[in-house]
Design goal:
This protein has seven helices and six strands, in the order αααβαβαβαβαββ. With about 190 residues, it is α/β, with parallel strands linked by helices. It has a six-stranded parallel beta sheet with strand order 1-2-3-4-5-6, with helices on one face. Helix 6 runs parallel beside helix 7. This is F-box domain-containing protein.
Length: about 190
């Protein structure tokens, strides 16, 4: 018996299983232009976005264009600040998209002059954020004002969901004692 099974013949459950193993860029690259059924499935999945420093500008623009319609589905974001031929990817993403359901956020900074004002404002409004990590490479420095604003914003965040914070950058943390109230729901602070 010679029967052929096409990708489109797979059940929705199998597609959901496949999507669980892929990151947003891979999902959009492989599945976004298949057919209307797949597009409707993509509307109901949770997305993990990973942007490595080896990505190129065209890949970020492709991902960002798809996130225009899917930003509310992003639950985790791991992002290097700079990629091969562009700077400040984190600012670009947060200026274009509002990640209202973001639960896990990891920023890896390579660029000391990043503008963080818009990012800080959005982080304040994220009420589902559970884990927030900022990692600064050893040889670069985030400016002192941004360090202070990030630290204050994260540690005084009143969201009941925030449980884990890692702030890995050079900063004089003595002023933390002047904060009026530090979020009491933190389980891990590094």
């Amino acid at each position: 018996m010679d029967t052929h099974t096409h990708l489109e013949d797979l059940s929705n459950e199998i597609f959901f299983e496949i999507f669980d193993y892929l990151h947003a860029f891979d999902i959009f690259t492989g599945f976004a232009s298949l057919n209307k059924r797949i597009l409707s499935l993509l509307q109901s999945i949770r997305l993990d976005v990973i942007i490595l420093n080896s990505h190129y500008d065209r890949e970020i623009n492709f991902l960002s264009s798809h996130l225009t319609f899917h930003a509310d589905q992003v639950i985790s974001l791991k992002c290097y600040d700079t990629i091969r031929n562009r700077s400040s990817i984190i600012s670009l993403l947060f200026n274009r998209h509002h990640f209202v359901n973001l639960q896990s956020c990891i920023f890896i900074f390579d660029n000391p002059s990043i503008e963080l004002e818009n990012i800080i404002k959005q982080i304040q409004s994220l009420n589902k954020l559970v884990a927030f990590f900022i990692i600064q490479t050893d040889y670069k420095r985030i400016n002192e004002t941004d360090n202070c604003n990030i630290t204050r914003t994260i540690l005084m965040n009143k969201s009941s969901s925030l449980r884990s914070v890692k702030l890995d950058y050079d900063y004089d943390y003595l002023d933390i004692s002047t904060y009026t109230s530090i979020a009491s729901n933190l389980i891990s602070l590094e």
